[in-house]
Amino acid sequence: MSLFRTELRRLAKRRFTRWMTAGGLLILALVVVGLFVTNEKIGTEQWAEARRAADSSHAEQVRWAEQERANCERAKAAGENVDYYPADCASIAPPAREDIQDEWYLPSTFVFKASVPDMLVTLAGILAMVGFVVGASFIGAEWNTGGMMNLLLWRPKRLSVLLTKLGALLTGMLAVALSASVAWFGILWLIASWRGTTDGMTSGVWQSFLLTGLRGVVLVLVAATVGFALASLGRHTAMALGGAVAVMVVGQAGLAILLDLAQVRFGEAWLLPTYVYAWMTKTLTLEDWRSCNASYTGECNPATLDITWQHSSILFTVAVVIFLGGALWTLRRRDIT
């Protein structure tokens, strides 16, 4: 019997894998419900209501301005100290009606073109967490229960066995990520059709969305590989989960506070979430408002630093090489007892 098919079947039949996948899908379902409930399609009725709201707001501004102008004139006539009023009370005037835009009072609507990029980041983030935990549990449980040692008695090729398990894990996560991505696009399209708009979609926009979705799939596979490698290094699921908690909660949060106290320029460039987001959005621009680049008009512009998906790809590659390489090296050198 093929070891790969056996491992793939074991992965699919593990209750932890099923529950974690179901949990991730449940979170995505709640996001979908929230999007459907909080958005609505914009029609003539919504525009009419927005216009009435804008008219009401303008009338309120007019009443406020008239009252304040009258108070100003009365206070100056009484000789009171009115430093908080302008020198000319007549300058207290309401905004023009055209300055109050009807669009401000429209209800929230789901614009497919504008909203999908952030929704793909959400999908990739949730599936990456599922992949990390499933990957760590898949190999960690094998070490903890002694299944890995028993298997190596029959298949003594250590590296081949470990890589076959990793291949089965990545195949399973790839199937889940691709299926979820296709379903995610379809559901978001339906929400936009019923509770928003799908205008502005061109072939170029679709291509950009598909590439973003593919980068999300790669992120899921990287997270699963790192979780698998960490658990294999520690020969226990807790090694990966504890390491993740230490890095994200203690390391990243503590480092963010330290960088802020030290006033390090572009401190976000030292944080892992920055590179994850840059990977999904292709470019993330960091700003340092403590620095001022004066323009020819005298305007103060902050110094900027661009983090691109290429920077993120280097970081992910180094992480995979170090952790997976370390897991393979330790398995080759250490005794299986």
Automatic annotation (TrEMBL):
The keyword Nucleotide-binding does not apply. One of its GO terms (molecular function) is ABC-type transporter activity. GO terms for cellular component: plasma membrane. It comes from the Bacteria. Keywords: Membrane, Transmembrane, Transmembrane helix. The chain crosses the membrane at residues 20-37, 119-141, 162-192, 212-231, 238-259, 314-331. The keyword Cytoplasm does not apply. This is ABC transporter permease. It comes from Micromonospora maris.
